[in-house]
C-alpha cells in the first residue's frame, strides 16, 4: 500500500483552490442535513509525523460551525501507565448523532507504536487489531459514517519537514523523541502501517492521501468527506444485520426452573456476612495493588433486592476505590450515541471496582420490549455485548454478572409493602406496576439474554432472592471466589 504509493502530479493552483472552496462551502451546507438526518461522522486522520495532520484538520474545520464538530487528539501513553482499556479514549470520543469528530491520530498509531516499542506482545497486537475491527463494525452497524485517511510522505520529505520544524525556535517543541525515532525506523513503521491497514479494512476502508501535496490532500479529504456524507444522506442511516460469532458459553437454567426456596438463618447470615465482608475488604486492597479492574453487573426483577445487595458488597470497600453506577433511561446526549458509549465512559481504572446497577443489557430487555430500538439493533446487540465484555476481560478485568431473581408472588408482596409504607413509597412507581404486567414478555427475553451472553470469561449468576439475606451471602461468596482466583492468576503470570 504505502511502498507502492505514487505521488500526485502538480495541479493548476487556481483550479485546485476553486474546487477546494466549493467543497468547503458544500461541507458547511451538509452540517444542517447531518443534524436533520441524525447522522454521526468520525473522521480518523492518521499519518507520518510532520505529514500535516494538524494542518489538514485545520482546513477541514475552517468554514464549518464549531458547535457541530469536535477535534480530539488522543494521548498515547506508555503501556505501563495505561489505566483503561486500549479503545477507551477512542470510544469516549465518538460523537452524538448529527455531529462530526475529527481524530488527530487514533487507534492505528496507538497500536503500532506500542508494538514496535515492544510494550505489547504480538498476541496482544493481534487482539488489538481484532478489537479495532469489532469497534469499527459496531460503529458502522450503528449508523456511523467512519472515514479513515492516512497522510503519506516519503522518508526524505519527512526529514526535511522535521529539520525545518526543529530549526525554528517557535516550532522546535513540536518535534518529539517519538517523531525522531519514527524517522529513524521509517521502513519498520511503513511495514507495520501497511500491515495494520490491510488487516483493518473489514468495516471501513483506508484512504491514502499524498501528504507531499498539502493543498491537494486538503481537496481530496474534503471530497472524500462530502461524498461519503452525500451517499449516507441519500441511502439513509445504515442499520447492520445481526450475526452471531461463536463464543464459549456457559449453559444457563431457564428462570422458571430455578428453585427459589433457599434461605439462611439470621445467625448464619450475620456470621457469614462479617466473614465475607472482611475478606472482600482484604481483596480490595490486593486488587488495587495488583491493578486488577473489577466490574460487577446487576440486573434483575423490580423489588428483587438489587439495592440492598449492592450496599452489602460496597460497605467493606474503600470508598476511594469503587463507584456505583445507577443506570436509568439514557439522557439525550447518551441516547444520541452508540448504545455502549455510556458504559465505555464509566469503566473503572485498573485496581478499581465499578458496580453497575443495571447495565448494557437494557438493550436486549427494556429497549427491545418497549420498542426503543429496532429489531436488528437488539438482535445484533448479543454479539456486540459479548465482544465488549471479551475486550474487558482481555484487558484484565474481572467481569461478574448477577441476575437477582424472585417469583411474581414475592414481587407483589414487596410492591404492596412499599406502597403501604410511607418511607418506602419513593421506591414504587407506576412504571413498576406496568412492567409487572409484562412479566410474561420479559421472562423469555431474560432467558434468551442469559443463554446467549453467559460466556466463560464473563458468566451470569442467577441469585435466588426470595430470601434477600441468602442472596447477599451467595453474591459475596461468588465475588470473593472470583477475586481470589484473579489475584492468584495475576501472581502466576508475574512469575512466568
Chain-wise SSE layout:
Layout: H1 13-37, E1 41-47, H2 53-61, E2 69-72, H3 88-92, E3 100-104, H4 107-116, H5 122-141, E4 145-152, H6 155-167, H7 177-184, H8 186-199, E5 206-210, H9 214-235, H10 266-290, E6 294-300, H11 306-314, E7 322-326, H12 332-335, H13 341-344, E8 353-357, H14 366-369, H15 375-395, E9 398-405, H16 408-420, H17 430-437, H18 439-453, E10 460-464, H19 468-495
Parallel strand pairs: 1-3, 1-4, 2-3, 4-5, 6-8, 6-9, 7-8, 9-10
Helix pairs in contact: 1-9, 4-5, 4-8, 5-15, 10-19, 11-19
Low-confidence stretches: none
- Alpha-carbon distance between the two ends: 39 Å
- Tell me, rounded to a whole number, the average pLDDT: 95
**Strand portion:** 5-15%
Series of H and E elements: HEHEHEHHEHHHEHHEHEHHEHHEHHHEH
Q: How many H/I helices? A: 19
Strand order of the largest sheet: 2-3-1-4-5
CATH architecture of the largest domain: 3-Layer(aba) Sandwich
Largest sheet: 5 strands, parallel
Q: Can you tell me the CATH class of the largest domain? A: Alpha Beta
| CATH fold-type name of the largest domain | Rossmann fold
Please, what is the CATH homologous superfamily of the largest domain? P-loop containing nucleotide triphosphate hydrolases
Could you tell me the radius of gyration in angstroms?
A: 26 Å
> Helical content, roughly?
40-55%
Structural class: alpha/beta
Secondary structure tally: strands: 10
Which oligomeric state applies?
A: single chain
Shape: elongated
Amino acid at each position: 500500500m504505502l511502498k507502492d504509493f505514487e505521488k500526485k502530479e502538480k495541479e493548476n493552483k487556481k483550479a485546485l483552490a476553486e474546487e477546494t472552496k466549493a467543497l468547503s462551502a458544500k461541507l458547511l451546507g451538509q452540517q444542517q442535513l447531518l443534524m436533520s438526518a441524525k447522522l454521526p461522522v468520525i473522521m480518523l486522520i492518521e499519518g507520518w509525523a510532520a505529514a500535516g495532520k494538524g494542518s489538514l484538520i485545520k482546513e477541514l474545520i475552517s468554514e464549518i460551525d464549531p458547535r457541530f464538530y469536535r477535534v480530539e487528539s488522543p494521548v498515547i501513553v506508555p503501556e505501563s501507565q495505561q489505566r483503561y482499556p486500549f479503545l477507551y479514549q477512542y470510544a469516549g470520543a465518538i460523537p452524538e448523532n448529527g455531529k462530526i469528530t475529527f481524530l488527530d491520530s487514533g487507534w492505528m498509531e496507538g497500536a503500532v507504536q506500542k508494538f514496535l516499542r515492544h510494550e505489547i506482545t504480538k498476541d496482544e497486537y493481534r487482539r488489538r487489531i481484532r478489537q479495532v475491527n469489532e469497534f469499527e463494525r459496531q460503529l458502522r452497524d450503528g449508523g456511523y459514517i467512519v472515514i479513515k485517511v492516512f497522510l503519506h510522505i516519503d522518508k526524505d520529505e519527512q526529514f526535511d519537514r522535521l529539520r525545518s520544524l526543529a530549526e525554528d525556535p517557535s516550532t522546535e517543541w513540536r518535534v518529539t523523541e517519538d517523531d525522531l525515532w519514527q524517522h529513524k525506523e521509517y521502513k519498520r513503521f511503513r511495514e507495520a502501517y501497511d500491515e495494520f491497514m490491510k488487516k483493518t479494512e473489514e468495516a471501513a476502508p483506508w484512504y491514502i492521501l499524498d501528504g507531499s501535496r498539502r493543498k491537494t490532500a486538503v481537496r481530496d479529504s474534503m471530497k472524500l468527506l462530502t461524498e461519503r456524507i452525500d451517499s449516507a444522506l441519500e441511502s439513509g442511516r445504515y442499520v447492520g444485520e445481526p450475526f452471531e460469532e461463536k463464543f464459549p458459553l456457559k449453559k444457563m437454567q431457564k428462570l422458571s426452573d430455578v428453585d427459589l426456596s433457599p434461605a439462611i438463618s439470621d445467625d448464619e447470615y450475620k456470621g457469614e456476612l462479617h466473614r465475607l465482608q472482611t475478606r472482600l475488604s482484604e481483596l480490595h486492597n490486593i486488587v488495587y495493588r495488583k491493578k486488577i479492574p473489577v466490574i460487577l453487573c446487576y440486573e434483575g426483577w423490580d423489588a428483587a433486592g438489587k439495592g440492598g445487595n449492592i450496599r452489602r458488597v460496597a460497605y467493606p470497600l474503600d470508598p476511594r476505590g469503587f463507584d456505583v453506577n445507577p443506570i436509568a433511561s439514557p439522557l439525550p446526549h447518551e441516547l444520541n450515541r452508540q448504545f455502549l458509549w455510556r458504559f465505555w465512559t464509566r469503566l473503572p481504572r485498573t485496581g478499581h471496582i465499578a458496580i453497575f446497577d443495571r447495565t448494557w443489557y437494557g438493550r436486549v430487555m427494556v429497549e427491545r420490549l418497549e420498542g426503543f430500538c429496532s429489531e436488528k439493533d437488539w438482535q445484533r446487540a448479543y454479539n456486540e455485548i459479548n465482544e465488549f465484555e471479551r475486550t474487558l476481560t482481555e484487558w484484565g478485568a474481572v467481569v461478574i454478572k448477577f441476575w437477582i431473581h424472585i417469583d411474581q408472588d414475592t414481587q407483589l408482596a414487596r410492591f404492596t409493602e412499599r406502597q403501604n409504607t410511607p418511607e418506602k413509597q419513593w421506591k414504587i412507581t407506576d412504571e413498576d406496576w406496568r412492567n409487572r404486567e409484562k412479566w410474561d414478555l420479559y421472562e423469555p427475553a431474560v432467558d434468551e439474554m442469559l443463554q446467549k451472553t453467559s460466556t466463560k470469561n464473563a458468566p451470569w449468576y442467577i441469585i435466588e432472592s426470595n430470601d434477600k439475606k441468602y442472596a447477599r451471602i451467595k453474591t459475596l461468596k461468588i465475588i470473593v471466589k472470583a477475586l481470589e482466583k484473579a489475584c492468584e492468576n495475576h501472581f502466576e503470570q508475574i512469575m512466568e
